[in-house]
Description:
By secondary structure, the chain is mostly helical. The protein has helices at residues 16-24, 28-38, 45-55, 59-65. 58% of the residues lie in helices and 0% in strands.
Amino acid sequence: MANLVRPRDNRWIAGVCSGLARRYGMSPLSVRLLFLLSCLLPGPQFIVYLVLWVMMPTEDRHFASV
């Protein structure tokens, strides 16, 4: 299983959905659609997205520290 990082390729805004999809073996499009559908429900989806954006390292930074 891949590490939880924001990839440099296949990103739309910050790469959070793409990184989650890569980590859990899903397609990035399906994770993006799930996120958009979850925005119709009440909850802290945008806050979670922003926290993941800040907390998830980019691929470049992650591989530089390994």
